[in-house]
Fold each of these.
Amino acid sequence: TMKTISWPYPRVVAHRGGGALAPENTLAAIDMGARFGLRMIEFDAKLSSDDVVFLLHDDKVDRTSNGRGAAAGMTYAELEVLDAGSWFDARFAGERMPTLDAVAARCAALGLAANVEIKPCPGREVATGRRVAAEAARLWAGARLPPLLSSFSFEALAAARDAAPALPRGLLFGGVPKDWRSQTAALECVSLHADHRKLDARLVEQIKAEGLFILAYTVNDPARARELAQWGVDTICTDRIDLIGADFLAAT
Ligand code: G3P
Ligand code: MG
């Protein structure tokens, strides 16, 4: 197994690229994260019907684009013509759902580390985990920091482990289940990622005692971010990149 001894990632990650300040999961969002000084971004990756890895949070394109329907049934050629910016603000008109290739290139250009959340379309867990991990390994080969792969899907993360064993993995939870130790061990995770509202000082201590690093999402209150850091949370994922900057937790 490849457990990291010290946590190499920044202490603050921009949720969906640019948090609340840009249309999620677009190149403009990544630019916004960098503009606010963040050094790591999180984004959601899934497969089009023709197996292109691209960024989108929901199963459907409706909320975050001018299209309609399930992404699983659309080719990337159909997805890439959709406007993924105007729903957020007219000044982002023309933003697209980018491919993982384009995202990796932008991260490299901006010097940003990446948390690639594998967010499979329903029923495509294994194929998505395998493909995203293989692509991430290829696209980030030689990068200063490897991309941190994460997923709520155990099956997707297991497929990612098999496809790219050397890439670090974090298992995502809402509420942390009783069997978090066996699940993270089976996947050889370096980290556990949890909804910050489900964490307390004791649970953080137990997770750390297991040798796991902790990422807490989605933390938008600076006082709460400080509290989590004091408990031992390693990294927080935030929408408020304007309030919780890259160096926010440096002194804690
Ligand atoms: O990875 C942290 C966070 O992004 C998980 O929740 O729904 O925003 O992808 P969600
Ligand atoms: Mg996410």
Amino acid sequence: IETVVYENSVTASKAVAKEIADLIKVKQSQKQPCILGLATGSSPKGLYAELVHLHKEEGLSFKNVVTFNLDEYYPMEPDSVNSYVRFMKELLFDQVDILPENTHIPDGTLTKAEIAQYCSQYEAKIEVLGGIDLQILGIGGNGHIGFNESGSLQNSKTRLVALDHTTRVAASKDFLGLNNTPRTAITLGVKKIMEAKRVILMAWGESKSNIIKKSVEGAVVSQVPASYLQEHNNATFILDKEAASKLT
Ligand code: F6R
């Protein structure tokens, strides 16, 4: 696993945006789609702002980009203020020239009976396109990636999961209290994340420093799903100084 430390999250996010822009352009020149795996939450906000900037100021086109988001709360209506559909539209999709039909986010409106088949179709769509070229990740305080919480297996598939209490507490400020915070979510499984050709995990701030140390320097254990990335051959943790502060 590679770790790269930046002075702050702004410079770090710009570097990640540059890598993504370069990949999009290489794929364009090859007349190939560029398959991106995307995350929500606070960590990638600066990245999406920079990608929007590159589109508006430097003409970066997303016409050949296909995206698959990691997760969505369940149940969740797409037009709800807290939906990841809304997050992605506001911060990225509605501000660039990506084709709406090329964006994919797990559907929070399914019935329980529909979820299993939907999840295998979500994975099949990724496979048909040849897999994820570049996967963006944040990390939960407990080491979750996507909503693969502690205990998620390395070969876990896309599925409905129960959110950890700590994850719900972190989300509860957006939902105006724990009682309104969803208990479940649909997440891409660890297996598809590990199959991505390139993985970039971004983490900012002192509050992530302990879990970053465990994930990078600790044992590879299901308790800390981000530690699985030690076994990925092209994964980089992009950190600010604070998030990296406990690394030896
Ligand atoms: C979001 C996701 C989560 C977040 C993680 C960190 O799509 O998959 O794993 O990346 O909870 O969230 P922030 O960035 O808000 O600290």
